[in-house]
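@here heads up, posting the sequence + SMILES for the zinc ion run so it's all in one place. Ping me if the SMILES looks off, I pulled it from an old spreadsheet.
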Amino acid sequence: MRTLISGGIVVTASGSQPADVLVDGERIHAVVEPGTDPASWQADRVIDATDRYVIPGGIDGHTHMEMPFGGTFSVDDFASGTRAAAWGGTTTIVDFAVQKKGTSLRETLDTWHGKADGKCAIDYGFHMIVSDVNEQTLKEMDALGGEGISSFKLFMAYPGVFYATDGEILQAMQHASDSGALIMMHAENGIAIDVLVGQALSRGHTDPRYHGITRPPDLEGEATSRAIKLAGVAGAPLYIVHLSCDEALTAVAMARTEGRRVFAETCPQYLFLTDDAMAGPGFEGAKYVCSPPLRPSWHLPKLWNGLRTDALSVVSTDHCPFCFNEEKQLGQGDFAKIPNGIPGVEHRVDLVYQGVVAGEISLARWVEVLSTTPARMFGLYPKKGEIAAGSDADIVIYDPRARQTLSARTHHMAVDYSAYEGREITGRVQTVLSRGRVILDDGRYDGAEGHGQFLSRSTCQLLG
Ligand SMILES: [Zn+2]
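bot reply: prediction finished. Complex structure tokens:
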């Protein structure tokens, strides 16, 4: 199958130019001057991309499909979640396999392969959440590198569930520094947060907005600084997940200025939503409960600045959907029981494009933070994250002028609300190719469960 993507503006992390893209089978064959004669390329299919951007498919490095939580699961499984991702121009996800205390990483990985195998519409890889740091786990971390698992997430939050002590974190980092694995960190001081949560509840402060009040930015900033220092002692690279506030950003920016191998991602919810959402009427605020929490509005321009200056390297979603009318209701009368998470895998490409519209970031930077840097960060480049000969034909054709309104009525995630309900935005995904196959075109979905393949990832490619 030969495809010609004709007349578009190819945008990569290094800039944009008018060009045609020749696709042969699952790969990009060449990027050439505009004006290719379809007959000369013997094209089976021609996609007219005039006045459209042609970009590498989005890579969402932080999703939680079918994630176990308190006896229930996040409501998108690998089928519905990857389908929704495709609708939104994301052609690769890296999801998290979650180690339960007392189980091995081996068992955990097998379980997650079982959940995803034959279900995914787009290609996928796994990070591993390590919740039980011990000798056996540390050995397994090394072994899993050979199976394409090159990144491991630890938690400074959630005592009793995922929490790791500073000593455990240091040990895991030492192992990572030997093996080349990347340690990902949920950086919030969970011990201090639990004290604040207990105090709030004992005063009868049970509404969703107390979720934010009990997780102040200083406790994210403190944990971020501590993680950076521990990584420095271990000589290991560090990736801070879902950075939400200026306090943490300042710590990362300083570390990067010092030349430390520290990276961070933020998420659309921290770029577009504020803590006001958690104070909505009735129980509405529960829709916006995620950790770290949404922050006061003055943090938002700081995060955009962080994206411009490369203090923040990546935008991922932390997609973790729970229905408002079901799972979120577990937190009625106790904000600490609200399942943490916001749905977002479908809207990352569109939302971050609003930063281009507003002049916050350039077109090239849009592609870089959504696709090219995640590809390099998670060992997928140049197979993914690039429009060039030899790369997988994971391609999005993007209409920069289309208007759309985000809504639960029209989205494709299996969740009953949108965190961006009624928001009018500019730009829309028109066509999506996943390894050469057109899976979305002009509002028609033609993907298939099982088309997506597991990606065995190499180590982080940004470490020089
Ligand atoms: Zn997460």
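MO: The longest strand covers residues 2-12.
MO: One more: The chain has a mean pLDDT of 97.
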